[in-house]
Amino acid sequence: EPAVRDLRGRAGSGPHALLFAPQDVVVVTGLPGSGKSTLMRRTVRGPRVDSQDTRDRWDARMPRFLPYALYRPLVRLDHYAGLRRTLRTGEGVVVHDCGTQAWVRRWLAREARRRGAHLRLLLLDVTPQQALDGQRARGRGVSRYAFLRHRAAVERLLRAVRRGEPPAGCGSVVLLDRDATDTLSLIGFTR
């Protein structure tokens, strides 16, 4: 299969399913508000680890007056601990990745290699305005500073992928825009 598969600009004509090998680690990445969590909730059949799910669980337990910034480190620890537990099962898994922590992708690539599988990247390519609109639609955004960090990281990743250079340890990349994600109905693993 090609290292980079571009499904952008194929409104309604793209695949309805993306299937991966049984032990692959699939990473969904893109700007905050690009639709990563929405795509995962709607299409993933099987194990998935979404940092937004972890945050939602913590938000439900915390007093409303307590700012997220105070317990964010605990949310991250909980997320990575849950991710580690899921990876240790050896099953294929779909993981939400914000894109700014390159060490996370390296860790996931090592875990995929350890189990004799591949790291697969699903890169949501949306404009910054589409991402900001997505944040507003969900009623929760990130700070301007954080958004600029995410934007710089995603733009670096996109430039490399457009040159046909997937990140180190990554077996393949699928580029998706909003139309391509709307067409998808399944992200899963073969048996």
From TrEMBL:
Keywords: ATP-binding, Nucleotide-binding
Matching InterPro entries: P-loop_NTPase
Keyword flag Nucleotide-binding: yes
GO molecular-function terms, A-Z: ATP binding
UniProt KW Oxidoreductase keyword: no
Domain of life: Bacteria
Short name of one Pfam family: AAA_33
Protein name according to UniProt: ATP-binding protein
Organism encoding this protein: Streptomyces sp. SID14436
